[in-house]
Write a structure and sequence with these properties.
The protein is of the alpha/beta class. Helices cover 33% and strands 24% of the residues. The chain contains 15 helices and 21 strands. The strands form four sheets. Strands 8-7-9-6-10-11-12 form a seven-stranded mixed beta sheet, sandwiched between helices. The protein has a six-stranded mixed beta sheet with strand order 16-17-21-18-19-20, with helices on both faces. Strand 13 and strand 14 form a beta hairpin. Helix 5 crosses helix 9 and helix 10 packs parallel to helix 12. The longest helix is centred in the middle third of the chain and has 17 residues. The model has no long low-confidence stretch (mean pLDDT 95).
């Protein structure tokens, strides 16, 4: 039996790989620094997970150790693995190997990739073609971040730009949703980000197809076949027309190079998710899905946990939780909520993610958060970083030009929310803010 060990098994991408190999019959175990709902799920599925940095808990002779760059190299277990010279690969390398055995559909972007990849996987999974998938979020339709279907030729993956990991992939179908500035600790400036995304785009296989959001300034080789898509830019190959809302669902027409799909129905909220649907449908059409399959899959898509995730929805109170941690994501989320609830007061709780990102995009974060009626900032979630002098949530708060703005600890949050009595509440962030969701639900249910 193959024995695979994971350093950082609790990460969303790492857990997908762990589940994938576990489903294939491998003996899978791993380490992470903290217990989460995701690690509890892994344990319930028969995967061993521990939380103390203890080399004695590493299997004697693993066939492969898979690690994520989020795990510090100083970790005792990491050092032990190096010393013992166990076979060692980054998550992105392993993902690249898996995708080379299938027709790979890879979705990249500074935002939007989780929803688009999950929707593509759902459309294929609901069709006669089937699908394998390793995703960066938990699909509400199959309550997991993986699909395993040995009969299907397709595998859908997220292509992560962090640490240039996506350059390990050579997809048949490539989707690029966005290429906004992010991870400047890796890339230094926006120009280098665009260079990396251009390189990734040009790794699309010669027989394959690239789908790129209209307006992203990438350099594409003449040999690459590509289509553009957008929400409503009529110069795109795929775009939306005639959007309307009826009984809480979106209806729209989709223009494509060969005609129009009329009266498509999407039950997943958020105007940005209509654009995400355009990208997913474009890929599905290239894969050969029939119109009836596309309609059924789109209408039954339940979304992704922590992506415009309704937690409470009553006439008097709305609570939505979202993973948004980039200024553009926050802006899109708030604008979508405002579109749905134009007359209600919107209160947002944001947990900044990374000191470097907060420093690099402080002004952009401030402008996005000003779209809220009331802003609450939690402490910065450091993830893999050490503190940066002068960079904290108070620093960000001073840049927000609003009267109704607050700093709060996690312990103070519930009392502050009760005092503010919001009509629409958003919790936003990629750190551990999700651990507060259950207590907020309990307080306002």
């Amino acid at each position: 039996m193959q024995i695979y060990y994971f350093l950082g098994i609790g990460g969303i991408g790492m857990s997908a790989l762990a589940r994938y190999y576990h489903r294939l019959g491998y003996k899978v175990s791993g380490y992470d620094h903290a217990e989460t709902s995701l690690t509890k799920e892994l344990i319930s599925e028969g995967i061993e997970v521990h939380y103390d940095d203890n080399p004695d808990k590493i299997p004697q002779n693993p066939n492969l150790v898979i690690y994520t760059p989020a795990v510090p190299k100083e970790t005792k277990e990491f050092q032990h693995i190096i010393q013992k010279q166990f076979p060692l690969k980054k998550r992105s390398e392993v993902l690249g190997e898996i995708t080379r055995r299938k027709t790979c559909i890879a979705v990249a972007g500074s935002h939007g990739k989780t929803t688009v990849s999950t929707l593509i996987a759902h459309l294929l999974n609901e069709s006669r073609l089937g699908c394998n998938a390793l995703l960066g979020g938990i699909s509400k339709n199959f309550n997991s971040n993986i699909l395993v279907n040995p009969e299907s030729p397709y595998v859908v993956v997220e292509a992560d730009e962090f640490d240039r990991s996506f350059l390990q992939l050579y997809p048949y179908y490539t989707v690029i949703t966005s290429a906004d500035p992010d991870h400047l600790d890796i890339y230094e400036n926006h120009g280098k980000i665009l260079e990396a995304f251009s390189t990734f785009a040009n790794q699309t296989q010669q027989e394959g197809t690239l789908f790129i959001k209209r307006g992203i300034p990438l350099t594409i080789n003449d040999s690459i076949r590509y289509f553009t898509y957008s929400f409503d830019d009529v110069s795109s190959d795929f775009y939306v027309w005639n959007v309307r809302v009826y009984k809480g669902s979106y209806f729209f027409d989709l223009r494509h190079p060969n005609g129009t799909l009329f009266d498509l129905k999407l039950n997943y909220p958020g105007l940005h998710n209509i654009e995400n649907s355009v990208a997913a449908i474009a890929v599905a059409m290239q894969c050969g899905l029939e119109e009836a399959e596309i309609r059924k899959g789109l209408q039954t898509f339940a979304g992704v946990k922590r992506r415009f995730d309704y937690r409470i929805k009553t006439p008097d109170f709305i609570y939505i939780d979202d993973y948004a941690h980039h200024p553009k994501e926050i802006e899109m989320c708030i604008k979508s909520v405002r579109n749905l609830y134009p007359s209600k007061r919107i209160t947002g709780v944001f947990q900044p993610h990374l000191y470097s990102r907060t420093r690099d995009f402080a002004d952009e974060f401030a402008r996005a958060l000003e779209l809220l009626d009331e802003v609450i900032l939690l402490d910065i979630y450091p993830a893999r970083e050490q503190p940066i002098k002068g960079i904290d949530s108070k620093f960000l708060l001073t840049k927000i030009n609003k009267m109704d703005k607050y700093l709060a600890t996690k312990e103070q949050l519930t009392d502050l929310l009760k005092a503010l009595n919001p009509e629409v509440l958003l919790t936003l962030g990629a750190g551990d803010i999700d651990k507060l969701v259950a207590s907020i639900e309990k307080e306002f249910s």
